[in-house]
Here is the input.
Amino acid sequence: MVLKAFFPTCCASADSGLLVGRWVPEQSSAVVLAVVHFPFIPIQVKELLAQVQQASQVGVTVLGTWCHRRQEPEESLGHFLEGLGAIFSHKPWFQLCRERGSKSWSCKATHWQGPTSHAASGEDQVMLIFYDQRKVLLSQLHPPAVLPDRQAGDTTASAGGLAAVFDTVARSEALFQSDRFDEGPVRLSHWQSEGVEASILVELAKWAAGPVCLLLACLLSLVSAASACRVFKLWPLSFIWSKLSTCEQLRHRLEQLTLIFSTRKAKNPAQLMRKANMLVSVLLDVALGLMLLSWLHRKDLIGQLADALIPVADHVAKELQHLLQWLMGAPAGLKMNRALDQVLGRFFLYHIHLWISYIHLMSPFIERILWHVGLSACLGLTVALSILSDIIALLTFHIYCFYVYGARLYCLKIHGLSSLWRLFRGKKWNVLRQRVDSCSYDLDQLFIGTLLFTILVFLLPTTALYYLVFTLLRLLVVTVQGLIHLLVDLINSLPLYSLGLRLCRPYRLAAGVKFRVLEHETGRPLRLLMQVSIACILPCSSKGLREPG
Amino acid sequence: MEDEQSFSDIYGGRLALQRRCYSPSCLEFCLSCPRITLRSLTAVTCTVWLAAYGLFTLCENSMILSAAIFITLLGLLGYLHFVKIDHETLLIIDSLGIQMTSSYASGKESTTFIEMGEVKDVVINEAIYMQKVIYYLCILLKDPVEPHGISQVVPLFQGGRRQDHLCIQQKVSLGDGGILASSGRQK
Here is the structure.
């Protein structure tokens, strides 16, 4: 297999030194993690590597030498570099060399046979692959953390190919703690050398997150314990709770908040992403709710709404009354059965009258109620929308009642018709066998059955028309409520954190890698640039990295 | 070293296959698809605008004409960005993997990289298209669960879907210098 050397782009301009990293024999690849600069004491380098190995369970060793000079290395330096190979013995020993200010690289890999037999050492062809350490570290393309029943040593035996490279870089955090500007015994160059990647806000948030999470988790457990108590499980209350969409939404939010503020850490990046998405959606929800609240209070819309509510309810009732008068006449030119028409029409008109009286009774309290309901918008826009949907359901309760009456009547009529139609044909429904059987009826049974059948058939258009009209009205109300619920679900489930990551830090949503062949000269090793390719939700051209050197 | 040959697809359009050898362990094949011709562009634009003008004479609403212009522009942009492939590249790197890049006419590039450890074999598949049999090159991927099974078949050079690949893949399979075969021995 061709020998591969993964070299970080940040070390391409570093001074000469030793290459430190990990050798993956199954892939014949050497992953260079950092460069140790001269001067150094070999014992201290070995100590540091042993420490890092213990802390991160990654087999970090010295892989070879790195030479970054103005001209070709002199003979003495050449011997010095080869002497280093004797101190830190590693098979194969890599010697990378680059002339300062030029793009020509050279790379040799020798299998060290012994201090005397230079000629017998074999040289292999090496392929140089550049990678951006920071992006590889943050892209999380490596397999998840060590399973508890496996030993640390053989976890990467199953990780194939490039996942092993990513895994090595990601687990060597201990190596990146100190860099060449620190006062320690060993000076390293790696991706943190150009400036340590950290943010005060993030660190403070991490410190504060512990106690805050604990406090909020306690509060939320109190609230969920209170809501799960036996009082709320009694029949009328539990029925009402299950019907109101506000309670559903509140329960959903409570579950989400419990998950976010639970003191258990997320097990893998997918869970972390889910938690982050939930947190961002809750925050957005509350922000939108507060904006709505401030808008309502600024324009004193609540008072206007309360004033407008009664006339609107009156108007709706009047329209319904006109509709019923129309149905009681000759709707669409159809001729209804007068008596049934009058009965049904008067029944529904009386209902509307009751409803209007009820609304007028409630009118002094409307403004108070609306004010308190508007206050609930600080819990979130979704809660306010759910309450709106519930108010619509309550205000159109009479339409729901009409629909139920119409549907029941129609259902009864259809059942009666089908049963009498079977009787008309001399058949019967066998409940035991769940099928239609023939049956011999008496003459008087047949007579009465046929009579009833005729009556029901002639009354069918009236009932059907009432049923149709009220079903359409109910459908209208259900459509409006459905749209509100759709909006609520959209706010609940939109993954805003992932979308934000996609725009700002696309490498966190990495979907794979891609390679680019860099300028090639004959006689020099082949150089490739490995870039993390981003999951393409939006169409865009792929962004490239700066070519080293 | 570079090597260029031209072929034609089953509709007579011109294809060009370019082979570059960066090193004994890295090879690149680049297939350029036939370009969009001025004739077809003019034909489509004229059809859309004539239809819009016909509608305009019926409805006397000038919004139709503006809408037709928008539709033409957006349709052309969408076609160039999502549909029209300019050239496709196959990069074979010994013991690393195979990378396929499609470049669209608007400059967008979409890349897929398959690691060598996942590749089971490269084969030429036959398919029946209308009245003839066409051949296309595809990669068989290993199944992680079953050692002798195949999990996926990935066709190569899918940009111009009506390309007859027989001559192309003879060049590809002979020209990869045994990289795939030597990597196969390592599996």
Summary: Residues 443-493 of chain A form the longest helix (51 residues).
